[in-house]
Amino acid sequence: MPTYIPEPFRIKMVEPIHLIEPAARAAALKAAGYNIFGLRAEDIFIDYLTDSGTGAMSHHQWAAMMAADESYAGARSYYRLKAVMDDIFGFKNFVPTHQGRAAENILANLLVQPGQYIPSNMHFDTTEGNLRARGGRPTNLIRAEAYDPQARVDFKGDMDIAKLRAFIEETGVANIPLGMITITNNAGGGQPVSMANLRAVSAVYKEYGIPFIIDACRFAENAYFIKLREPGYADKTPIEIAREMFSLADGATMSAKKDGIVNIGGFLAVNNDDLFQRIRNELILREGFPTYGGLAGRDLDAMAVGFMEALDERYLEYRLAQTAYLGESLLEAGIPIIEPPGAHAIYMDAKALFPHIPQTELPGQALAAALYLEGGIRAAELGTVAFGYTDPDTGKEILPALDLVRMAIPRRVYTQSHLDYTVEVLKRIAAKRASYHGYRITYQPRLMRHFTAQFEPL
Q1: What is the DSSP track for 94-154?
Q2: Would you give the DSSP letter of residue 360?
Q3: What's the pLDDT tens digit per position in 319-336?
Q4: Global pTM?
Q5: CATH number of the CATH domain containing 40
Q6: What pLDDT is stored for residue 389 in this prediction?
Q7: CA–CA separation, 371 vs 356, rounded Å?
Q8: How confident is the model over 388-403, as pLDDT tens digits?
Q9: What CATH number does residue 166 fall under?
Q10: Domain check: are 95 and 203 in the same one?
């Protein structure tokens, strides 16, 4: 039986939640076009839609917000954030942004031309969307084991170095404006990337003169996995490991709404001075002056405190243990998930749970809908809806290898009883799985369709 370790904090404020009746849930889902993004928050009992911006801030963060400086330019809040950025990430230049996709937008706008390719282990949805919006072609070069949900690999998020080198040789350096890697690898189950792999990826990019950018959303969780699993790092602190990770790259994008434990915020950091000047100019057009970047001073201060809190070992031990408890409890109940459990979320294998639903009939969407209808739980489809796309050369619909439903656990929000309730709901779904049917899309936008697509049950 999995064990649940005590939370390393006390609950100081509570927010009421309410489980509405089954008929009301059915009506709410239908009114939302069967898209869980369209549901009203008050109709959700447990919300695993995302861990982005949904965490509980600490008393230190709230206190820092009260002491914030709201000067338009040169605010003290900015310089407090800069000191933390220098300490952890170490890049020569950075600008704050209102969230990670703003950083991705600026970077893609400046570097990506139509028809160019951007390799990574696995791009997540907003990164992929921003690259495709510029005519870019995001390319995933994850290790083969990532596509086997049951494979227990310590660093399942690693990029395949042989694939990366072969891809660069075949595509040509002129057609690759930048290379990326995501830590942890969100699209593939929240799996970590090893320091050895980061070092090897960095060496390949440097060999070919390709700028190396880290998608750093969950850098602290990745650092702690390295401490726990990679030889030579057991005695290092998470902040020491983080510094080493970022020393291998030329820059980073980040949504601080994850491992900054804030409700809004992010950054774009680079070492190249010329590129940074172009970023500053773009930022002023899109986000704001370079010392606030679309954020209030209080948000900058909350980020500065949150980055350091995310690296606290007691917090990270609890964070990973909470997710492992949910994951192992689901496995005991016979619910197929991506193994081993990651840090920020549990990813259920919808194709394995609903083998009778063809992938073209969206088993992930069916599972996301079932979770809400059965238990008032909201979770995100990260399968055919989120990552299926039309090949620009052939016009063929490309289906992803994995059809997943992600339950992302907000930081410092839910307790053991919430997770136990989740397991019981999924047991009930599994017991009557044959009664569930697929869905079809009735409306979809060109990019990032999962946010606003509309469906109907088959």
Answers
A1: EEEESSHHHHHHHHHHHH--TT-EEEES---HHHHHHHHHTT-EEEE-B-GGGG-TT---T
A2: G
A3: 999 999 999 999 999 999
A4: 0.92
A5: 3.90.1150.10
A6: 77
A7: 18
A8: 877 777 878 888 888 9
A9: 3.40.640.10
A10: yes
